Amino acid sequence: MASDQASIDADKASLIKAQQNLSDAQLTSPISGTVAQVNLSVGQSVTAGSTSDVITIMNSGSFQATATLTPAQASTVKVGDMAEVTVTGTKGTLEATVARVGPVDTSSSSYTYPLVVALPAGTHGISAGSAAEITVVLAQAKHVEVVPTSAVHSAGGGSYVDVVKTGQEQRVTVEIGVVGADYTQIKSGLSPKTELVLADLSEAVPSSSSSSTSSSSLLGGGGIPSGGGFPAGARFPSAG
Residues 168, 152, 178, 218: what is their CA dihedral angle, to the nearest 10 degrees? Predict the structure, then answer.
């Protein structure tokens, strides 16, 4: 009887192990949808936390855009940041939210960080796999005084702009705030309606095939979304 009991215990242990292996072999998708791609072959091993997609699930109810960041870019982006997504072939931009940054991918010669932004549920007019450009908004300011970013210069750790007063060009030191691709916030140093010089007339024309013009702009008010533009071959797999 002791020998029989030992055999029964061994069989029970084998059964428990088989049941655990079966459970581990079953993959459960976090979303409902249709399996669009399986990058696996029989006998292949896949480690947990892999940064590459092995199974793609399509769900037309939600979308996400993916791209990569450099280490410097990744250090400035965090989950929850607002992002704008421009889809190739469509007009306008879509508001999105940063859903994931990293973990670092060391498979290439240089470190990169995967970026995933989630679009609102119910977003329409997008085809899965479309190319897109993602712009992450790192900072923004509303109802502030702004000038064209091209008018702001840096020197000696500070910033200045060239203004026109009584027909003469003068350099004025300013304190800047949020800096965007098009506009820069001016915290102090200028008053509204100040005329700015946007071109340095002392500089030579770049080449015979290009032209240089002198223009001016007035300090105005407005909101400045300042974004780090991270254009990459962003793709639209379904979320999940």
Answer: 40
Residue 197: inside a domain, yes or no? yes
Other beta carbons less than 10 A from residue 143's beta carbon: 7
8 Å CB contact between 147 and 183: yes
Tokens of 187: 């915290």
Question: What's 170's domain CATH number?
Answer: 2.40.420.20
CA dihedral 41, 43, 44, 46 (to 10 degrees): 120
Q: Which of residues 125 and 156 earns the better pLDDT score?
A: 156
Report the predicted TM-score, pTM, of the whole model to 2 decimal places.
0.50
Mean pLDDT of all residues in 149-155: 86
- Total number of domains in the chain: 1
Residue 50 forms part of a structural domain = no
Answer whether residue 186 shows pLDDT above 60.
Answer: yes
